Fold:
Amino acid sequence: MQEFGGQVRFVVENYGESKLAKRFGVDRYPAIFVDDILVATPNDFGFYGKDKNQSGGRYSPLKNAETHARFRSDLEKMLRLVLAGRTDDARAMAPAQKAALIAALPPLNVNDIHGAAVTPDQLSGRVVVIEFWATWCPPCRSTLAWLGSLKKKYGDDVAIVTVAVESDRSTVEQIVREMHLPDRAVIGTPDVARAFGDISAVPTLFVFDRHGKTAGVFYGAPPSLHADAEKTIDRAVDLRT
Structure:
């Protein structure tokens, strides 16, 4: 930011706690704002950068020199427009953002890390909790431990499936073993992520009621995550008809 002579200040807001992000309906990361103008959405950065068959967004993969330069150039253009007072022009350049939401539980036909099948029949008639996580995500560990306590509380009323994305299988197996997780652990693929609205952040937690309808979706790991999600699960468990 030095080239702007101190006219620009860089601010980082915690994922899941940004009022500005909530105002725009952005519930995934990363997202870049200039003042109150959304200039780069989560989809712009992609998520499965390691998948050669997945093109990702316009800045994916960011480590690529060409896409890194494109992002820097676009950001500089936006900053110069705002500093020049041309906010209408800046807003016109900003991409549209709409969070991808799903109305119901997608059909799951996958195998867990032990090779056992996870099928729709196994989940039918139960409250289903799907947690997307990654081995490189520190906040995901506390959520995984909390999910273990949920299984003890609700028993067979709740089916829990954890989906590890962009994670090495051996590390996933080690974490599941060390944490004594009772839920079904699955290695996520881009196809699985797209079925759930194209996951671009972890942790992301879905709760589906006994009829398979979406009861709640929770992004990130704000302090209220476990309490808020558990209230949603409680209501879904009590809903019998």
Remarks:
- Residues 49-54 have pLDDT under 50 and may be disordered.
- Residues 110-238 form a domain with the Glutaredoxin fold (CATH 3.40.30.10).
- Residues 65-83 form the longest helix (19 residues).
